[in-house]
Amino acid sequence: MPKARPDEDKIYAKPRAQVENFAFDSQVADVFDDMIRRSVPGYAMTLSLLGIIAQRYAQPQTRIYDLGCSLGAGIVAMAPAVVSNVHFVGIDNSQAMLDRCQQNVARLQPTRQAELHCQDIQETPIENASIVVLNFTLQFIPKERREALLARIRQGLTPGGILVLSEKIQFEDDRIQNNMTDLHHDFKRANGYSDLEIGQKRAALEKVLVPETLATHQTRLQRSGFSRSETWLQCFNFASLLAFK
Question: What is the pTM of this model?
């Protein structure tokens, strides 16, 4: 068996007597890029199209927030597409993730460096923002606190500003839910994950990642004050929406 690369996700490759709740610690940060690309269908496309979205909606002399920025992939994807007087702000509550984010952001042009903060996104002031990105982040916030966060984001957007909201979703129809789950697991197997890895990671995420239906997201966005929302990308049980102030 070939030796695993240092950045290859093998966290759940060995049987565990007890699977602890998933956490964005240093072990995850070391392999996160490999983990998310092999685990989230459509993730690479989401990143590649973020630049196109940013090019259209970023406004001069405003801010772009990436809430739950992890390793900074979203910032790196958007930065080349927007004018230089747009300021990037990356927020994550894991210092291990931010340390690696800083290394990735440092590879950008000096004029495009991002302001990074280790902080709970529920406490982050959103000000003068033309774009806010929540890429697979809201699903880790307790359900009862999600609307307040979205309302605060909407309040901090400039006229014409947008929210990019990407989430794992669930389906009301059990047949669809089971089929999409099976396809998601097939996607993981095709990317080299074993059934043991799939099962143990699912157990680790069960209590900390709580998905909702697209209809629930759309209704909440409307209650939070957004004028409309549109699903611009869906791949199996993962989707991304644009919400407009």
Answer: 0.95
